[in-house]
Write a structure and sequence with these properties.
The protein is an alpha/beta fold and 128 residues long. It has helices at residues 14-21, 36-43, 84-94; strands at 6-10, 27-34, 49-56, 59-65, 77-81, 98-101, 109-113, 119-124.
């Protein structure tokens, strides 16, 4: 079994470029409209919405443009990357939230968020 893609809500279409492309380095693949009838059958949300598909290496994201605020809960995506500090610096410079938890016996925990509240845990490839 392998992961095909992850679906996330974003509130503004611009966030796809600002965060997913410019911060995380994903590239745009294609977009489509999810019809309200199909959306209701799959997600129990009767709403037509634009969906943007982005990819980086083996990770693919379906970004559902939905202006409504959704509850985050504990959901997050953990990604292993090279040079996570450079990503954290880009986030800080562009106004994206960063949470760092210092630990004495292990590498720091580092979480970043897009402006829609999607949370990403960043791990250095060398720390895993």
């Amino acid at each position: 079994m392998k992961l095909n893609h992850i679906g996330l809500n974003i509130q503004r279409k611009e966030d796809a470029v600002d965060f997913y492309q410019n911060i995380l380095g994903f590239h745009f693949e294609h977009q489509f409209e999810l019809k309200s009838s199909l959306s209701e059958k799959i997600f129990n949300v009767e709403k037509q919405t634009e969906v943007l598909f982005y990819k980086k290496e083996n990770l693919q994201l379906e970004l559902f443009v939905n202006s409504e605020n959704t509850k985050q809960g504990f959901a997050h995506i953990c990604i292993e990357i090279k040079e996570r500090e450079k990503i954290a610096e880009k986030c800080e410079n562009d106004g994206y939230p960063i949470t760092r938890i210092t630990r004495s016996d292990k590498p720091d925990l580092l979480f970043i968020s897009d402006k829609s509240g999607n949370i990403f845990e960043l791990k250095n490839e060398s720390d895993v």
